[in-house]
Amino acid sequence: MTGDVRRLIDPALYADAFVAKRLGYQPQADFAQTLEQQVRAADAELKTVTFFPQQIGPFYREAVGSLGNAAYTTRQGIPTSATAWGTVLSLGFPMPREGEVLGGYLWSGSVWTAGTAMLRVRITVNGAITDYDLTDCVINGALDASGNFTRTQMACASALPGSGIEFPAGAIIKPYIVTAASFAPASDMGCQIVAATAGDT
After folding, report:
1. What H or E segment, with its residue span, contains residue 139?
2. Is 3 domain-assigned?
3. Is position 21 within any domain?
4. How far apart are CA 121 and CA 104, in angstroms?
5. Does 194 lie in the same domain as 108?
6. Which of 67, 76, 149, 196 has the highest CB neighbour count under 10 A?
7. Is 30 or 98 the better-scoring residue by pLDDT?
8. Are residues 126 and 97 in the same domain?
9. Share of the chain above pLDDT 90, in %
10. pLDDT-derived band of residue 201, with 50, 70 and 90 as boundaries?
11. How far apart are CA 94 and CA 73, in angstroms?
């Protein structure tokens, strides 16, 4: 096709816009354009967060007794055989991305008889230490919140993403075991932390 090619425009749109402006309100075409711009801006800022769950541990501690709030530091063992530990470390785990601690597990080699043993999470950020007690993760002889088992040798706690203990990228996480002065019997114990780190999709 040759000749002058121009975009066809409905003249009624101009009439509607003229009347709308004379009456003091926004023309429909202008309103639609503004709305589209706002939606595009909102989409550009929208971030979908995916949580990547991960287990931190397990950690162990021998002969957990009744030190109370002084807490027992936990260790990682590196075996030299199926029945022997080699190097025993006491390290926190650095987190590569921001996220949350969602819960943990605590277990004992002996059946509880008295007192309490509770899992504590220590989060260190640039040298600043903050301790968080997982009060649902406690061996105390009581019925678990689920009603399915009694916490005489095992305890656990969990939270949904968005309601856990937040930490920034680079935070160092390490569990401790806190006992009451009446805790008995002294036991070899293990624990694990459940965390989730966030990523954009």
Report:
1. strand 128-139
2. no
3. yes
4. 9
5. yes
6. 196
7. 98
8. yes
9. 51
10. very low
11. 17
